[in-house]
Amino acid sequence: MRPVHTALAVLVAAVWGVNFVVIQIGLGHFPPLLLSALRFLAAALPAVFFVGRPKVAWKWVLGVGAALGIAKFGLLFTGMAAGMPAGLSSLVLQVQAVFTAVLAAAVLRERPGPVRLAGMAVALAGIAVAAADGGASGPVLGFTLVVAAAACWGVSNVLTRKAAPPDALNFMVWVCTVPVLPLFALSLLLEGPERDLAALRALDWSGVGVIAYVAWISTVFGFGAWGYLLRRYPASAVAPFSLLVPVFGMSSAALVLGESVSGLRWVAAVLLVGGVALTSLAPARQRSVSAGSRPAGAAASPAP
């Protein structure tokens, strides 16, 4: 990769890692489901009027929008609101690569080779260590919700593989339109209109900045730049930079939020990042999708 594109890949990883800290700050302003709804609303508008019509069938837009927007982000934001630390969330969420590989084997008939199987085992060991650390320092419910969010991310990755969108930014903007109304409805039902209205009435520049970052910088810029790199270079050259996301997430959480990083968490980080690297980058033995599709997990965007 050219140095300027290498710098861009590192910048995107940094943007996505810091995004976990911004989400944590945002949860001090908004209920989790309302924050998620506002994120997708701001990401979709006004961009949806400038990217053109969807370049894939609507069933893929709706499917990924439901799995990624409603399920994954709803669970992630709720898990973090339940006490899951931002740095640990950025790490645990990367187990999506394991869920993606398992689902790809079941749905796309991609048989994992021995290297990928070893990577999955190492990553799961990292999750076990992270669970042990989280059990000692944080709520079990929050940890469980973030793992469930990673599983939903795996579903959305496989659906995206099947969709094979030719324009990643166009696809992501349209996907962002899907969860807006369902998330607003869930927020009203589960979080209550009084709480939502109080949060909106108390909106200040800090809250506006949070929404702008998670919607425009993390989502629109991040996915646009990542898609640009994937169009210029093989996924195997771009995907390794996603392993920097938990590095930036944990370090920024320690610097900005004062989160401590225990010895167990560093062990979990090494196991998870190493396992995800093997799982994401090792080739599958067989594929039932077109030759132009990227390997499961390798092209999956790690954006939070």
Detailed description of the structure:
The protein is mainly α and 304 residues long. It is 73% helix and 0% strand. It is built from 14 helices and no strands.
**H/E element string?**
HHHHHHHHHHHHHH
As a percent range, the share of helical residues equals: over 70%
**Cα separation of the termini:** 24 Å
- Distinct helical segment count: 14
Oligomer class: single chain
Radius of gyration, taken over Cα atoms and rounded to an integer in Å: 18 Å
Let me know the number of strands. 0
Shape: globular
Largest sheet: none
- Beta-strand fraction estimate: under 5%
Average of pLDDT: 84
Low-confidence stretches: 286-299
Structural class comes to: mainly alpha
Salient structural properties:
73% helix, mainly alpha, 304 residues, 14 helices
Task: Give a quick summary of the entry.
The chain contains 14 helices and no strands. By secondary structure, the protein is mostly helical. Helix 2 packs across helix 11 (205-232) and helix 3 (58-81) crosses helix 8 (168-177).
Q: Layout of helices and strands, plus pairs?
A:
Elements: H1 3-26, H2 32-44, H3 58-81, H4 86-92, H5 96-107, H6 114-137, H7 140-163, H8 168-177, H9 180-191, H10 193-201, H11 205-232, H12 235-238, H13 245-257, H14 263-281
Helix pairs in contact: 1-4, 1-11, 1-13, 2-3, 2-8, 2-9, 2-11, 3-7, 3-8, 4-13, 5-7, 6-14, 8-11, 9-10
